[in-house]
Amino acid sequence: MTKYGVLVGSIRKNSYSKGVAEALVAGLPEDAEVTYINISELPLYSQDYDAQSPESYGVFRSEVAKQDAFIFVTPEHNRSISAALKNALDVGSRPWGESVWAGKPALVASQSISGISGVLAHHVLRQSLVFLDMPTMQQPELYIGNVQSLADDAGHITNSDTKAFLGDAAKKFVSFASKFE
């Protein structure tokens, strides 16, 4: 059985990114093992920590290493991904030569309250995943714009078409990820 790690790039309470992630997870098989990996408490990465990392780095890297595939959902912050998500990618990729990301398939989704739907953040994240040697599902591209009109106040996606679209994308990701087992 595939173990799916979920990284939500927004650490905000009632995050739309978490709502998108939940809608994607709903499309996974009922018996899928899903772990939401918390990135909110990781200290900012510094190469000075490579010799002796904070305990939270070890816990995070261990959790990432246990997963077979990843779902990343990011908001767009200043035309890029959130600082918290970039930090998590950096922490998992270090020390040099010890990346816990390599070879693990990824699904990328972005969301924004604007009509351009986090497209730039989406592609910034994809570029990082290429460097981290993570095969990334190419289609469908998951850009969710005007997300506030698709979700409730708690960030949960309520629009049935969007939920169906994300659920179908997750089913395709299951097939994509199985090629790397």
TrEMBL record:
Origin superkingdom: Bacteria
GO CC entries: cytosol
Ranges that cross the membrane: none
InterPro entries: Flavoprotein-like_sf, FMN_Rdtase-like_dom, NAD(P)H-dep_reductase
Domain (NADPH-dependent FMN reductase-like): residue spans on this chain: 3-147
Gene Ontology molecular function: any one: FMN binding
Protein name: NAD(P)H-dependent oxidoreductase
Organism: Leuconostoc gelidum subsp. gelidum
